[in-house]
Amino acid sequence: MPEPSSSRSFQGPLVTLLLLASAAAFAQDKATPPSQQATTVLHASTQLVIVDVMVQDADGKPVHGLTRDNFKVVEGKTPQVTHNFEEHSSAAPSGPPAKKLQMPPGMFTDYTPVKPNSTLNIILLDSLNTPVADQGYVRDQLKKYVMQAPANAQIAIFGLSSRITLLQGFTSDPNVLRDAVEHKLTPHSSKLLNDPGSSGSAGSQDLSDMVHEVALETGSASLAETAANLATFETGASTSQLNLRIQQTLDAFEVLARYLSNYEGRKNLIWFSGSFPLDVLPDAAINNPFALSAVEKYREVSNLLTRARVAVYPVDARGLMPSPTIDPSRSGDTYARNPTSVTAESLAFASSQAQEHATMQQLAEDTGGRAFYNTNGLAQAVTETINSGSDYYTLVYSPTDHAQNGAFRTIHVELAGDAPHSLKLMYRHGYFADGAGKPSPHDVSATLSPAAAASTTAATNYERTALSRGAPTPSDVVFRVRVVPASAGTEDALAPGNNANPMLHGPYRRYMVDYTALANSFTWKIDANGHHVGEATFETLVFNPDGNLQNAASRTLQFNLPLETYNLLLKEGMNFHLEVSAPARGQSFLRVAIHDVPANRFGVVEIPTSSVSRLTPVSAPPTATPASVPPTGVGSSKPSSPPPGS
Fold this sequence. Notes:
- This protein has 646 residues and is an alpha+beta fold.
- The protein contains 12 helices and 24 strands.
- It has 2 domains: 22-32 and 443-638, no CATH class; 120-388, Rossmann fold.
- Helices cover 27% and strands 24% of the residues.
- The radius of gyration is 27 Å and the shape is globular.
């Protein structure tokens, strides 16, 4: 996110903590539909492990009709007791569609209803790690797929460049999908990838190789030294670019996992990429110092994916890859002058391919998916993934080993009883035991340290991405917000407490931003006095269509609530008011967010100003009964720090 001002600090309005009777109705809106309550959901406060198992016959067709007694689950070397068991079938009668929320004009929420017991499918086109030509091929293959996509498949489309962007939300409408693939999947050149098809690329042959060839022809020792120095420089630059791609890829998967964790059921993530830089396996990481430091990040992301029941299906967007030594564009004279280079390049290519395929397999096995490579049938890969990923069995068990020591626990599932043992099983093969038993952020006894939770690099990266224009909107904190103009006219000055990009100029349109959230959406710690202690940041960021930050308003509340006040807020909810200015001319986007600071959790809504700029103005925030909340003991406020990287 760009930096509007090097000395920016947030000076928001004085805090107003209000109670609205409508918050009770809001709580009712958020109640889980009865049809969803039977679905097993893994919460952080319970020591449960969910394993989705796909069972296929020799022809790759799903096998139905198995029972709980047909499965045996072993963690490590210890058999486990399956407490819950469900079969999911794409052939089962389709239930009623998710009921759309009817929101009045100017009212928005981060809660997204999804059809009960549906399997969600996510297509991720990775332009960060994929050459432009291969992105075009993926796009053509996806066009082919959506022409015959099943009408009941719930599909969303995301793009990954330097950050992840939601291109199309979940839909089962083939026409919407076709439009998204046709108009939103535009190939983008990666600045961190040596892409011969990109403008400004170094091309397929490094400068050091060319200088080395001249040195061999002329016998020049000085040119040979120059070639060696160039090779060292190129290796350093390449390593730096790889490090950034690894970090940005892991950040994107973290945001995606957190976003998807708010949806029930299994999710199939189809990741189209031209390279898979998550190489954090011990043997492969020896020559990559950054990868050693990425191990912890990979473990965190892997756990987030498995807890969110996301199975990753990596698909090599390059299709069938021939060795570069048989590429017609490469000069035969080069190999004639240096015959050993043929063997060296062939070995390097084989090693790179084996390494990337191992990474793809590892990620697929860790999450219960499947890797696709050495195939040009990318549309078929999508078809197979969505078809097979919609038929599975869910096994839930409580591990006999309750220790949360960070160790990797292997999971082995095998068939038992009268089930044919020749059937093929696909499931995740383990998990890291580091935190599944921590208190839930919703638990009033949670003891997470805000300083410890918010000071980590991982927390910073998640915050940066969660607040970026166009990124998936997390709903860790469920809330609703009313956004309306403050007046019918424009203003030359910013709203009080706003911090704008110095290059931004009026006229402005001021907007009233009124939040309503439930108290049990936040993390609470009980202090020695029995008070509920917590911290939350309310913020609204203004972006232009290019994703550049234009203006921001933010305020942090530090709560110290007596039990009676907490119970009142728990029942009726709490509100907060901000005012923010956006350019009156052209389109802007408001990124409205609540940050539950102790657990680094977010609720976010993104609103185009065109959807609210013509609404009836409201000159003041809603009022509440003066005695609703005591003026003392409720909490204090402070100006917030700017969003990291903003």
